[in-house]
Amino acid sequence: MKVDQSTVAALQGLSPPKGIGFKIQKIGHVVLNVRDVSLSTRFYVEQLGFAVSDVYPDTMVPGGMVFMRFSPDHHGVALVGSATIESKRSEMHHMAFEVATLDEVFRARDRLKAAGVTIVYEGRRRAGCQIAVEFLDPDGHHLEIYWGLDQVGHGGYVRPPNEWAQTKTLVEALTNFPPGQDTSLADPSLSKQ
Fold first, then answer.
1. pLDDT by residue (tens digit) across 82-100?
2. Do residues 176 and 99 share a domain?
3. Cβ-based burial of 45 (10 A; exposed 0-12, middle 13-18, buried ≥19)
4. Which of 47, 76, 121, 165 is least surrounded by Cβ atoms within 10 Å, i.e. has the fewest?
5. pTM assigned to the model
6. Domain range spanning residue 36?
7. Whole-angstrom Cα distance, residue 172 to residue 31?
C-alpha cells in the first residue's frame, strides 16, 4: 500500500476509542529468535550491559532461551535459539533502548565501534528528534541506543517537521539542533573522538 497525503491525514486523525478498558503503559519486553543463543547473549551482556535473569535449557525450549534485564523488570529482552537464518528485518524494523544522557550515546557508539559492531546510522533522524546510534547484533537485528526523544505536549502537540533538524553524525547533532533541545555534553571531549 502506498502512503500518500490522504493516507497520512487519515492516519494522523486516528485516536484511541473511548472506554477501551485498559491502557498500555510501556513495551514490556521483546523476544528475538537468534541462531546462537550463547553468542547473542554475550553480545547483549558484554556490549550493551544487560544482565542475565534466567536461562532455559533445550529441554524447556528448543534452542534454549535467555531472559535479560536492563532495569528492575525481570526481563526487557529475551533470546530464543531457534533461528536458522540471519534476520532479514522483515518481521521487525528495529528495537531501541533509551539512555539518560547524550554523553552515553557517544560512549555507546565508541564502544560498539571498538568492538567491531556494524554501525548503520548515527545522528538525529526526523520525527521524535532523538539523537541515536543504530547498529546490528550478531543476527542482523537492527538496534538503537538513543537520548532526547521529544515528549508529546499538552493537547497532543508534536514538534512540526520544519523543526526536526536531521543530521548524519553525532557531532553534527551537537550544533544543528531543534528548538529546545540542549545538546551540551557533560564531557565535551567525547565529540573529538
1. 988 888 877 788 899 999 9
2. yes
3. middle
4. 121
5. 0.83
6. 28-85
7. 34
